[in-house]
Design a protein that fits this description.
- By secondary structure, this protein is α+β, with helices and mostly antiparallel strands.
- The chain is built from one helix and seven strands.
- A hairpin with a 5-residue loop joins strand 6 and strand 7.
Length: about 120
């Protein structure tokens, strides 16, 4: 995948997520069961807190957690079998060149990182 195509896909997805996160909820609406209400997004911030967090268990060792959703991306850290990781529910990226689905995770500092889906359940 070319960097231009990757950036276009990523930016389009980010715009769609931002539109969903900033849409006003009906007055008095409560969060869905098992989730917490998301704080309002602040323009210019890099991390956005989603309405729900999903938790995964790593099933390989060592498994690279990367800064971008492709195998050539810089490695943020390694996780090991049994480690628990978390990220925004439903935020994934299909890398057609690799034939691999990537799942977004969130670092303790709020940054977005990625793990290949075949290594978590």
């Amino acid at each position: 995948m070319s960097i231009r195509r990757f950036l276009a896909t990523t930016l389009a997805g980010a715009a769609a997520v931002a539109a969903l996160l900033t849409a006003a909820a009906p007055a008095g609406a409560a969060p869905a069961a098992g989730t917490t209400a998301a704080p309002a997004a602040v323009a210019g911030t890099e991390a956005v807190t989603p309405a729900a967090t999903c938790y995964y268990t790593v099933i390989g060792s060592p498994v690279a957690v990367r800064w971008s959703p492709y195998v050539g991306a810089a490695i943020y850290t390694y996780k090991h079998h049994g480690d628990r990781v978390s990220g925004p529910c439903g935020v994934t990226y299909w890398n057609a060149d690799e034939g691999r689905l990537w799942i977004a995770l969130t670092t303790s500092g709020g940054s977005r990182v990625w793990i290949a889906s075949e290594w978590v359940r």
